[in-house]
């Protein structure tokens, strides 16, 4: 399982990059969901983002999930091309699979890579 | 005969496994006074007695076997090839239900896939779902889809007053509590202005505009401009279409429809006094994730063999739950098969012939009726197989007279549109012979002399 060390993580399997403000879903999440066939970004540029609010809606062959804002802030960019190629979330969740960029965010409450890896290991399914 | 598949021995073995002595113990949480209430049923009939009783009820009904019918208004008396029933009654289709296990449901899944392909083709659209219960609920699902498409941000539905009254009522029922407003179909609406009269009702808060084609009075309009106005406002355009008419008319897709729905009953399904019927729903590929209902897809198995499966299932409410477009997760399997069988048997040429017969016979009837003193065609708009006749007497009176001659007359439009008293909606299909039409004309003439 891929857990890039430069990123921060949530308990609901979103990742956040404090450097760029980008966020998406983790390698762990895309493995659990299996083949993703649909993704819809629910926020627009300029919208407020907060953790209780869904940023995107994802459907795979067997599940439907909401992706929540990893942090509180303002949406500065959305990945327009993502809905055309939902499989990117499986093949490159941390790179081309970024969903939105959030500015003005405080990521201090998020887990670092080591904690997230431990958290994933503890989970039973 | 018991209708439960378990033998007493099997039941005892199961009870022993879970450690109880009798089935009664499983109901112990239900308060004693509510357990096994006395139902006071009459004694059981034998099969012979039951058959006689049911035959009695059936015999009290008349059918289009013994009456000539000119009644339409949403469902139509078309010829059903004998082969349709034979295919439907095959046990593999008749008793099969939900094809959730593709390994043992390839026949059912392929049949639904063929149905989907045929309906997409017929309406000119890119995709179809596996069907809904009827045209009215399919129209309601179009409203659900538009609501979901705009994530609840657009809250207005523009509904043509010339959409079938039952569909309009169903739309209102389905959309209760969703925070939607419906406009366009109030009792004082202008019924004569054509699609342009709806244009002023469309704005950036409109989620869906829905019209009927041909409309409830049988009139054919080209909705292309209305579709453009709808799209300019960013809304979705839905056409509720008669499937038989699509064999010869410009398709809703060519007019710019985003969704096409309708009643599939004309495609090999009997009238049955109101149902079961078949709702079809087609749309463009870009909307498929917001579309409700089952979808069958074609794929290959792990040996490269073509196979069919239910696909895009995460849209449906048993997975997506409260965020799904709709709660519907079933389809009208047997009747979708009837429609697919009917269309396959007729083929493109045969189906076109049916439509042409309907068209020409209806125009012959209209021409003859318009020449009878006291009667006139209410509208001069082009029509397919249904037209409105302005009559010299109340429709109920005329229809009573027609019934005496073995004819079921047209629909009394005054029942749904107070301004249209003495307007009769007459439908003519390939089933009506020239002699029958001539008889209708003679009796209508006779009624006016009384």
Number of helices of chain B: 14
CATH superfamily of the largest domain in chain B: Type I PLP-dependent aspartate aminotransferase-like (Major domain)
What percentage of the residues of chain A does DSSP assign to strands (E)? 25-35%
CATH fold annotation of the largest domain in chain B: Aspartate Aminotransferase, domain 2
Sheet with the most strands, sense and barrel status of chain B? 7 strands, mixed
Q: What does it look like?
A:
The complex is a heterodimer of chains A (125) and B (450). A six-stranded antiparallel β-sheet of chain A has the order 1-2-3-9-8-5. In chain A, strands 4-6-7 form a three-stranded antiparallel β-sheet. The longest helix of chain A is centred in the C-terminal third of the chain and has 10 residues. Chain A starts with 7 loop residues before the first strand and ends with a helix. Chain A is globular, with a radius of gyration of 13 Å. Chain A contains three helices and nine strands. In chain A, 39% of the residues are buried. The mean pLDDT of chain A is 93. Chain A has 125 residues and is α+β, with helices and mostly antiparallel strands. Chain A has a single domain, classed as Beta Barrel (OB fold (Dihydrolipoamide Acetyltransferase, E2P)). Chain A is 17% helix and 31% strand. With 450 residues, chain B is an alpha/beta fold. Chain B folds into two domains: 114 residues, Aspartate Aminotransferase, domain 1 (Alpha-Beta Complex), CATH 3.90.1150.10; 260 residues, Aspartate Aminotransferase, domain 2, CATH 3.40.640.10. A seven-stranded mixed β-sheet of chain B has the order 2-8-7-6-5-3-4, sandwiched between helices. Chain B has a four-stranded antiparallel β-sheet with strand order 11-12-15-14, with helices on one face. In chain B, helix 9 links the parallel strand 5 and strand 6. In chain B, helix 6 crosses helix 7. The longest helix of chain B is centred in the C-terminal third of the chain and has 38 residues. Chain B is globular. The model of chain B has no long low-confidence stretch (mean pLDDT 95). The interface between A and B is medium-sized, with 12 and 12 residues.
């Amino acid at each position: 399982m891929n857990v890039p060390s430069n990123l921060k993580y949530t308990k609901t399997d979103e990742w956040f990059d404090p450097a760029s403000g980008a966020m998406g879903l983790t390698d762990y999440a895309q493995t659990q969901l299996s083949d993703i066939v649909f993704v819809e970004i629910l926020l627009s540029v300029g919208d407020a983002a907060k953790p209780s609010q869904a940023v995107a809606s994802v459907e795979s062959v067997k599940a439907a999930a909401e992706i929540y804002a990893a942090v509180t802030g303002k949406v500065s960019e959305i990945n327009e091309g993502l809905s055309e190629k939902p499989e990117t979330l499986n093949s490159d969740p941390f790179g081309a699979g970024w969903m939105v960029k959030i500015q003005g965010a405080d990521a201090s409450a998020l887990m670092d890579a080591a904690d997230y890896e431990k958290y994933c290991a503890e989970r039973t399914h | 005969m018991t209708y439960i598949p378990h033998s007493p021995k099997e039941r005892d073995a199961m009870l022993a496994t879970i450690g109880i002595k009798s089935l009664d113990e499983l109901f112990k949480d239900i308060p004693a006074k509510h357990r096994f209430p006395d139902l006071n049923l009459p004694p059981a009939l034998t099969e012979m007695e039951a058959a006689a009783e049911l035959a009695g009820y059936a015999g009290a009904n008349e059918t289009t076997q013994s009456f000539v019918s000119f009644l339409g208004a949403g469902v139509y008396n078309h010829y059903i090839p004998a082969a349709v029933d034979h295919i439907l009654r095959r046990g593999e289709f008749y008793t099969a239900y939900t094809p959730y296990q593709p390994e043992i449901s390839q026949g059912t899944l392929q049949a639904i896939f063929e149905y989907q392909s045929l309906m997409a083709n017929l309406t000119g659209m890119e995709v179809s779902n596996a069907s809904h219960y009827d045209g009215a609920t399919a129209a309601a699902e179009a409203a659900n889809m538009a609501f979901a498409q705009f994530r609840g941000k657009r809250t207005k539905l523009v509904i043509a007053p010339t959409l079938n009254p039952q569909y309009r009522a169903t739309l209102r029922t389905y959309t209760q509590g969703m925070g939607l407003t419906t406009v366009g179909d109030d009792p004082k609406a202008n019924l004569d202005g054509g699609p342009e009269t709806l244009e002023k009702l469309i704005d950036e808060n409109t989620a869906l505009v829905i019209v009927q084609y041909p409309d409830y009075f049988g009139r054919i309009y080209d909705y292309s401009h209305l579709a453009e106005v709808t799209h300019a406002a960013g809304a979705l355009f839905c056409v509720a279409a008669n499937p038989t008419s699509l064999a010869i008319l410009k398709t809703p897709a060519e007019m710019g429809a985003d969704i096409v729905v309708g009643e599939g009953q004309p495609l090999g399904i009997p009238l049955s006094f109101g149902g079961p019927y078949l709702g079809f729903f087609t749309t463009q590929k870009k909307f498929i994730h917001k579309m409700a209902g089952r979808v069958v897809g074609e794929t290959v198995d792990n040996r490269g063999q073509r196979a069919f499966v239910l696909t895009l299932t995460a849209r449906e409410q048993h997975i997506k739950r409260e965020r799904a477009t709709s709660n519907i997760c079933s389809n009208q399997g047997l009747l979708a098969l009837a429609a697919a069988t009917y269309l396959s048997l007729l083929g493109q040429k045969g189906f076109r012939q049916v439509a042409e017969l309907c068209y020409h016979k209806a125009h012959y009837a209209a021409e003859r009726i318009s020449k009878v003193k006291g009667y006139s065609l209410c509208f001069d708009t082009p029509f397919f197989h249904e037209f409105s006749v302005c009559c010299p007497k109340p429709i109920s009176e005329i229809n009573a007279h027609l019934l005496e001659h073995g004819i079921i007359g047209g629909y009394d439009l005054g029942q749904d549109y107070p301004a249209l008293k003495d307007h009769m909606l007459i439908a003519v299909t390939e089933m009506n012979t020239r002699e029958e039409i001539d008889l209708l004309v003679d009796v209508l003439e006779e009624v006016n002399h009384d």
